[in-house]
Amino acid sequence: MQVIETVADDGHHAVHYINRVGWLRAAVLGANDGIVSTSSLLAGIAASGAGHGAILLSGIAALVAGAMSMAAGEYVSVSAQADTERADLAKERHALAHQPETEWRELRDIYVERGLSPDLAGEVARQLMAADALGAHARDELGISDFSKARPVQAAVASAASFSVGALPPLLTVALVPAPATIAAIVASTLLCLALLGYAGASLGGGHRYRSMVRVVFWGALAMALTAGTGHMVGATL
Ligand SMILES: [Zn+2]
Fold first, then answer.
1. What phi and psi, each to the nearest 5 degrees, are found at residue 204?
2. What's the whole-number mean pLDDT along residues 206-221?
3. CA of 134 to the centre of ligand 1 (A)
């Protein structure tokens, strides 16, 4: 991951958050999904009156199933993005080979729109195309850069890993806490983990920490309450 760091006139170093957005969003989403879906499922099964072994087994199954579905979903969606990028780059390569003047005008106009004078924009476009025509068009016309380039396998592995990391705390809680206190322990450990995740995500992404904590804790608590209520009702009828 490339870190963008600028040094101000007074020597102050500034690290930009933008290059973190891609992997951060996938990691927080995956971990949040892992915590909320696994803890809700465990709370639901526990509230149905199932035995400790059954609760633990369903938790392990939820972790594996969730991690695989996240990986599959991420791989499929990022592969589709990669296909689109490849098709756009092939079109661009063809246009650069067959109508370089039109392409030069296109790039020049993009720089004029960004505020350069037509002459300077034309010169910048000419020099950038001389250095790396496809790279310049990919970056400034199509918005494909090193940061945004689609990496399906990396995305799938990162998603499955972050889901699994998220699912572990509620699962370990069930493994360590005996039957009467299971639900209370799941709720406590889950809300704590969600608060930490909200805090970490906001800290890394430059967001508002406490608002982010409240946001993830609220939705996590709601998901657990609804699932536990459903589990309790269904368990009573079975
Ligand atoms: Zn172009």
1. -70, -35
2. 91
3. 8
